[in-house]
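Morning. Coffee machine broken again, so started the prediction first thing and wrote up yesterday's gels while waiting. Chain of 333 residues, entered below exactly as on the submission form.
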Amino acid sequence: MNEAVRWGILATGGIAERFATDLTDLDGAEVVAVASRSEAPARGFAERFGIPRAYGEWDGLFADPDVDVVYVATPHHAHREAAGRALEAGKAVLCEKAFTLNVREAQELVGLARERGLFLMEAMWMYCNPLIRRLAELVRDGAIGDIRTVQADFGLAGPFPPDHRLRDPAVGGGALLDVGVYPVSFAHLLLGEPDSVQAHARISPEGVDLNTGMLLGWDSGASALLSCSLEADTPLTASVTGTKGRIDVPRGFFFPERFTLVRDGAEPEEFVNTDHPHSMRHEAAEVMRCLRAGETESPLVPLDGTLAVMRTLDAVRDRVGVRYPQEAVAARV
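Came back before lunch.
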């Protein structure tokens, strides 16, 4: 591989634009191609970001010999197909979250990557954020004792009309996969996979979750109270409380600028991040580090952890009765 890591971007929506923007000043990152299902959006995207090649279909990107890694930024219902085809073409892949619609699809992608010895990572940028990494380190080192509770929420005010993608079950709509993946992943980062899952949701007429509450439990006695919504602008905060203190993360917990450590008998300590706190560059840098080191999985966003999160999301959907049309078709095959 050349010293520069050459990126191909699949899809041209808002998250792809943000990723391309954050790569513009990242040392060693070069975006060489973009693809969409049609030519016009791909060409427009390429012109905006100075990308040399634009493809009006996916296969052109997958066959491009100058692309080292494909960033999959399609809606999550297309992640299995897009990431799978990229891997089959021999490309490393960074795939947006939610990683797939369900754990079955996630297992297929992980199995394919491991079988072929190719790099694959979920784009859980929160895990790569320097301050979240510091928070997790403090918790692992016992700064707040044994964890007893985790709280986190992510809600959007809406309202979203019935024809919006977030309410379309055919594209994996609903609060859980779009924004609920963040609080669930935050709890997993600190406590691992839960031993019990309870959930309650308000379901739309289309059959997706609009407002979901989750209670996760661990045999250690720890619990996590999590929520996600497409109907309410929630605080977007998180906290973790242990037997010797707590850590509070203010609004925007998944890309924090600061958090506060409160320990018994001590003055509160504030930890601040000035290193591009809102940027996706940290996950891109981790991908590039792994590729240069010849690693096929990231220790920051391990594939087994991604599978565990998908199992929890599946369990939540099972409890609230959300099922996507593709799953019914797959069950009949």
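Residues 35 and 55 are 5 Å apart (CA to CA). Going to sketch it on the whiteboard this afternoon.
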